[in-house]
Amino acid sequence: LKCLALKSFLLPTRQRDDDEKRSSAAWLLSLAKADIPSALAKDAECHSGECALNALQRKGQATYEHLAALEDEEASNSSFPTYGYHHWSTTTMYGDAPRAACGGIDTGRLVSGTPYHNVASAQSMWLNCGGTGSCWCGKSGGGDGTTGLGCISCAKGRFLRSAYGKRGKALYALQEEAETELEADKADETDVFASEELIVVVGDLCPSAGNEDWCPPRRGQRNAYGSFNHLDFSHYPKSIPHHHSIPNLNFVFSRIECPHDLQQRYWSMSQCR
Questions:
Q1: Which residue of 71, 116, 142, 251 has the smallest Cβ count within 10 Å?
Q2: pTM of whole model > 0.90?
Q3: 213 pLDDT above the threshold of 60
């Protein structure tokens, strides 16, 4: 032991400093790893591509296996202002489906009498959905800029006043318009929103075939309006005027775990297991 101590003492000063730095770094890294799960659990954003479905299957314990992909996703969407939410999407409206892709559920019955809103998410937001969009009970996918939202995934969000559905309105022009609104309304950011906060649930698929302008076939692809994400609402909320035409407003959102009553209703109706 004395020899070892002497050897350590005789090491060059620079080498001893390097050893101490490496030891300190390893200690700090171990602390950081220990804090990751608790820190993520406190965030309103559900940080796993498969979290909503897996949380139910694993009794509410969300997984965090896709953190690297999600960090890349955030950077890819950063050019669009999200006003306190995590993700950005274009929207359309399609009505109800009596036998939807999430286990044959009736999307109208799924949310009837509740404050929730059913959406069909773009094929690119599902896991391994395939080029033809023949998916059934698809899990959340995402990555490369695309947000994962598959069957029985939920999100909270709000409609914006900007929209991509207006003819002749280029993506860059809309982006500049949104940035101008943000600059003008720094004192009151609520002016950029066109709706109250909603909770949406994915009960159906928006296949790329037949919806090529809106719903990309694969993750990392943008639609014709420049968005990685697209949500096709069964019905817009009553606060959004759409009697004469569908406004196709933009939507900002953060993923959340589905409310318990919605989970129960879904699993009582769906053939997915």
A1: 71
A2: no
A3: yes
3-state secondary structure the chain: CHHHHHHHHHCCHHHHHHHHHHHHHHHHHHHHHHHHHHHHHHCCCCCCCCHHHHHHHCCCCCCCCCHHHHHHHHHHCCCCCCCCCCEEEEEEECCCCCCCCCCCCCHHHHHCCCCCEEEEEEHHHECCCCCCCCCCCCCECCECCECCCCCCCEEEEEEEEEECCCCCCCHHHHHHHHHHHHHHCCCCHHHHECCCCEEEEEEEEECCCCCCCCCCCCCCCCCCCCCCCEEEECCCCCCCCCCCCCCCEEEEEEEECCCHHHHHHHHHHCCCC
